[in-house]
Design goal:
The chain has five helices and five strands, in the order βαβαβαβαβα. By secondary structure, the chain is of the alpha/beta class. The protein has a single domain (7-126), classed as Rossmann fold (3-Layer(aba) Sandwich). The chain has a five-stranded parallel β-sheet, sandwiched between helices. Helix 2 packs parallel to helix 3 (65-74).
Length: 129
């Protein structure tokens, strides 16, 4: 029996419904999921553990996901630049460049296209295998 190589994913989402959906999807992709409900929790968890991927909602309490992304990008991490998939349901009026300038690798608008999300998870966690 071979050991399964899990990918360590941080899910930053304050909606428990969306968080649970993301967890169910990610479990099928051999992901170990850590959850955070606000931007400060994201930073705290990121500084304590290495992640293969972060899925970041931009509209988080305490500190926005955009601000948390900028701070993550400013941290010199032993693992390098962790990929971040940014998600948002309330950022339609902002230009996409706002998200990429903050440091995300990909951006998805809610409601999420789960097939596209799985494709991106596979793309960014392939090197973690």
């Amino acid at each position: 029996m071979t050991e399964v190589d899990y990918k360590n994913v941080l899910v930053a989402e304050d909606s428990s419904v969306i968080q649970n959906l993301l967890k169910k999807i990610l479990l099928f992709e051999n992901c170990k999921i850590t959850s955070a409900k606000d931007g400060q929790s994201v930073l705290d968890k990121y500084e304590k553990d290495d992640y293969d991927l972060i899925i970041m909602d931009f509209n988080l309490p305490v500190m926005s996901g955009l601000e948390a992304t900028k701070k993550i990008r400013s941290i010199k991490n032993k693992k390098g630049k962790v990929p971040i998939i940014g998600i948002s349901g309330n950022a339609k009026n902002l230009p996409e460049s706002t998200f990429f300038e903050a440091g995300v690798n990909e951006y998805m608008q809610k409601p999420l296209d789960y097939d596209k999300l799985i494709e991106l998870v596979k793309k960014y966690t392939a090197s973690a295998e």
